[in-house]
Write a structure and sequence with these properties.
This protein folds into two domains: 14-250 and 464-473, Rossmann fold; 255-442, P-loop containing nucleotide triphosphate hydrolases (Rossmann fold), CATH 3.40.50.300. With 474 residues, the chain is α/β, with parallel strands linked by helices. The chain has a seven-stranded parallel sheet, with helices on both faces. The protein has a five-stranded parallel sheet with strand order 10-16-15-13-14, sandwiched between helices. A two-stranded antiparallel ribbon has the order 7-8. It has helices at 24-35, 49-62, 75-88, 105-108, 131-137, 156-164, 184-194, 203-210, 230-238, 247-250, 268-282, 288-303, 321-333, 345-355, 366-377, 388-391, 414-421, 445-473, and strands spanning 38-43, 68-73, 97-100, 115-119, 140-145, 168-175, 211-213, 224-226, 242-245, 255-263, 305-309, 314-317, 338-341, 383-386, 404-407, 433-441. The protein has 18 helices and 16 strands.
Length: 474
């Protein structure tokens, strides 16, 4: 593959590449993309969304329908997953690409290539002004990978992309978790597909049609929840142009085993903070920043430390209950490879002080992250750590048969939770099961978080099941 990139990767020889032959579920997805100019693939991680899109683009280009492919994706997905698929399959050997990233990202858009791999954050920079000339000169196809990054219609990235949408001749979104925090997040994602054709062009109209306000005494309405029957109605509307597939229906995947490790923590500081949070929640003049701050602090205490000066990352250790449990668990695993998820910077600092150097994917360059991933898959790293935000997308870590994942703490973000779990439960992992170890503090907010994740998951599963049922009828 000829390639122009700000982060060059070793090229695979043409002779070493395999031919990409779509599996039955991939053929279904390919059929959708080639039958609609604008659509979406809601496929579980590991089902081959990237190669499906590349094959569709290859066909469109060969038929003279499009000239260029613009991919908007998280940095690690853009710098690792997409180049990896291009290099792996012989079908794509004639496609060229460039990674639009780094100090010379503006100039990368001047490269004469077929595919431009662009980080989501690019839309928040001044360099985005370099994109319209490219779109005016060529017939471009847009793919928004991990489209939930655009679920907030008030975000700068969505507002910028919204202005550019009419410039593309084809538009597709990709995600495995379309509504991790409720149905409202689906509105802006579907807007990328058809500019409001399915779910309306105004968010407020969408809310009034498919949602209902959550009223709290003395507090302006800021929360909305799905109205009865709304999930099914929405799935009916989007089903003609969106395909939803579950990995377990098509692939042989390891089973999940969940192992909750409950630890007792000192109560004094935690109980004081909990009372303070309760006062905020009961107040009729509650300020959400205060509530959010209290919740974050409670999560920190549950993990064992709190920041005393966030600007300088200074913190005070309160207890070692979770560290004790983690050390015991790692001894139990006896060097078996495992992924370790942490929530705060002081978590990984304390973990390293206790168990020694642990490599982490957070705050690393794409090339360094790829090297660590390769070492982990090869069995050279017994533990690979990272924040769920850096672990959740674009990593294929199942190749070495790793089947243990440890969560040092929990967060409310369902997308991070689900996407990270599926870094190991993917096609190619020959282990019979993947064990998820969660170290949870007894009688703390972590137990509430665990239940909240289950509730959000039930709402998302209702939507995905409804969508799948609708598609099976059509």
């Amino acid at each position: 593959m000829k390639s122009t990139s700000s982060a060059p990767r070793k090229k695979a020889s043409v002779s070493s590449r395999q031919e990409w032959v779509p599996q039955p579920h991939q053929q279904k997805a390919l059929n959708l993309l080639t039958s609609v100019a604008n659509g979406g693939l809601f496929l579980d991680p590991g089902m081959g969304k990237t190669s499906i899109v590349l094959e569709a683009f290859r066909r469109f280009k060969a038929e003279g329908q499009v000239d260029k492919l613009i991919v908007l994706a998280p940095l690690r997905v853009a710098s690792v997953a997409w180049p990896g698929e291009l290099a792996k399959w012989s079908n794509f050997q004639d496609l060229t690409s460039t990674l639009v990233w780094g100090p010379k990202k503006d100039r990368r858009l001047e490269d004469d290539v077929d595919i431009y791999l662009i980080n989501h954050e690019f839309l928040n920079t001044r360099s985005v002004t370099s994109l319209p000339p490219l779109l005016e000169k060529h017939r471009c196809m847009l793919v928004v990978d991990e489209s939930t990054a655009f679920k907030n219609p008030s975000s700068k990235r969505f507002k910028t992309l919204r202005l550019l949408l009419p410039c593309f001749v084809r538009r597709y979104i990709l995600t495995g978790t379309p509504i991790p925090n409720g149905v409202e997040g689906l509105w802006s994602q579907c807007f990328i597909i058809d500019e409001g054709g399915m779910l309306g062009s105004k968010l407020m109209k969408f809310r009034n049609t498919y949602m209902r306000p959550v009223f709290r005494p003395g507090v302006p309405v800021t929360l909305w929840e799905a109205a009865p029957g709304a999930v099914e109605k929405i799935s009916d509307l989007v089903s003609p142009v969106v395909l939803q597939l579950k990995g377990e229906d098509y692939l042989k995947l390891p089973d999940y085993i969940f192992n909750e490790i409950a630890v007792d923590i000192p109560r004094k500081e935690y109980d004081l903070l909990e009372k303070e949070l309760l006062l905020h929640l009961q107040s009729q003049t509650v300020a959400s920043p205060n509530v959010a701050s209290n919740i974050i602090r409670l999560r920190q205490v549950a993990n064992g430390a709190v920041y005393t000066n966030t600007a300088f990352s200074e913190y005070e250790e309160i207890h070692t209950a979770k560290l004790d449990a983690l050390e015991e668990l790692l001894l139990e695993l006896e060097g078996k490879p495992c992924l370790l998820l942490y929530q705060f910077a002081h978590d990984i600092d304390r973990i390293r002080r206790r168990v020694g150097i642990v490599p982490t994917l957070s705050n690393t360059t794409p090339s360094t992250a790829q090297r660590m991933c390769d070492q982990f898959v090869a069995g050279e790293l017994p533990v690979l750590a990272g924040h769920p935000a850096s672990m959740g997308h674009g990593l294929n870590l199942q190749g070495g048969g790793a089947h243990h994942m440890i969560w040092f703490g929990l967060d409310y973000n369902l997308e991070y939770w689900q996407q990270t779990l599926q870094r190991l439960r993917r096609q190619g992992n020959t282990a019979p099961s993947v064990t998820i170890h969660t170290i949870v503090a007894n009688r703390t907010i972590e137990q509430t978080i665990s239940q909240t994740l289950q509730d959000k998951n039930s709402n998302q599963q209702l939507f995905l099941t409804s969508l799948r049922d609708t598609l099976s009828i059509h």
